[in-house]
Amino acid sequence: MSIVIHRGESVGILGRNGSGKSTLLQIIAGTLQPTTGDVKLRGKVAALLELGSGFNPDFTGRENVHLSGAVLGYSRAEMETRFDGIADFADIGDFMDQPVKTYSSGMMMRLAFAVQTAVEPDILIVDEALSVGDAPFQAKCFARLRSIQAAGCTILFVSHDIGTVRAFCQQALWLDHGIPQAQGVANDVCAAYARDCARAMGMEYQESAPVQQESVSNTAKNRSSVLLRESRAEFQKNARLSRRGNGRVQIRNFFLLDADGKRTTELTWDQEVTAVYVVGSDREFDGLFRLSVTCMSLQGVELLSCTDRTHQHRLRLKPGAEEVLTMQVKFPLVAGRYALFSGLFIFPDDAVFPGGTLDFSRSTAADLLSFSAFIEILPQFNLGIHGPVHLETPLSFAAG
Fold it and tell me: pTM score > 0.70 for this model?
């Protein structure tokens, strides 16, 4: 095979088990030598290959951070300057000073990913490493990958998840027994690979229609102090990942309630739930506002957004006070794990159309929080979804 990958490209590598994906990455990383041909690399390479590879199991996490840095050509002093950021990203607490052999697979992956992405590689190789992470950490990893991608890092990404390759990679390569079957634009290669997988299972493959956005909303007040206390710590931990806005009003907590008023992160298709926002301000505030919640894939692809487009609402806050706001939402999505981004927009008093709706072009983002919460849509059957039906016989209609 002959492959040319340019600086800053993200390339997904697809194929069934035994197709040669991991072997190819190990050859590129230099841990295997090709039987024929050669590999030419320009730049520093960091690799996440087999789980735990490159770590000494008897060393602590802290010691392995320095060991990995030394392998990549960094001095101990240079790794010390990066250590706090690595420890914060890995988020394994006191285990950082425990031997790596005591780690779970998820903890080992957290540390490995934190180290390899903190050393500013020119080329990053990722071989299915993210599959063992929980939903919040996967989302944090993809946010980090997009950040280093924007900085010009070339990323080679092996995954069995076609959706991830579509969302994250510009180019893709499909291998079968070491032989390229397709190479080029990621969306095209993914479609070809999906068709082949479907044929192997005796199924027809058809591209799905794009997800339609839906907005369902209603602003009200909800007082549930126990739920507010229970969810606040988790929210604040997730919200650290990313937030934007002028901070005039802040979202202090966010979670979902089911029809029984119980906090939930597991939903069924199109189930209506209540999105609860606890908002506050350090200064007095009196103005119009609108809430929003956006559902994203863990890879950072926006799937749908819910907001109140048809009504105007006024929020009044004393300095240091908090208010509880709610909005009814639905997430008509296929089974899987998703991230929720919450938002609060404010408007001047004259930003109202004659019909009473708010002029969104005059809004200001007060607070936009990535990864406010994580949900799982559970599998469900007999949904009663309607769609086009192909009939072989001709139809005739008559008035009756």
Answer: no
